[in-house]
Design goal:
Pep_chain_release_fac_I, elongated, 135 residues
């Protein structure tokens, strides 16, 4: 189970830059793009098992230094972009650590098997009755 999103704040680094997103002239003078960096190996909130799972599942999203990098530039506001980046970060962790429920193998019931065989027999009889009739 993951700790709450705000517990990760001390372990996150934020960097801002000029956005290429919406904002008109605002884009040229305000640093609204937010880049979130999280050093997976240095985290004190995650267990070793969780770290290994994240390293495997998020390998394509990690930098060579082992940092998870998430950028947000959807909004004109730096604060909202920071919130978006935090939400993306937490969703990424949750999705990577989610364990799918194990599937239990089951057998069809006797009634279902009987019904299927009766249906096949009926269909075969119908096809067998087709064709030429000799007088």
């Amino acid at each position: 189970m993951l700790p709450p999103a705000d517990a990760f704040l001390p372990e996150l680094q934020f960097q801002t830059s000029r956005s290429s997103g919406p904002g008109g002239q605002n884009v040229n003078k305000v640093e609204s793009r937010v880049e979130l960096r999280f050093r997976l190996a240095d985290s004190e909130l995650l267990t070793e098992e969780q770290k290994q799972t994240l390293l495997q599942k998020l390998a394509s999203k990690l930098t060579t230094e082992g940092e998870l990098l998430i950028a947000a530039q959807e909004d004109r506001s730096q604060l909202r972009n920071k919130e978006i980046a935090l939400r993306k970060f937490y969703e990424t962790l949750q999705k990577a650590l989610h364990k799918p429920k194990a599937r239990k193998a089951t057998k069809p019931s006797k009634g279902a098997v009987r019904q299927r065989l009766e249906s096949k027999k009926k269909h075969g009889d119908k096809k067998a009755n087709r064709g030429r009739v000799d007088f």
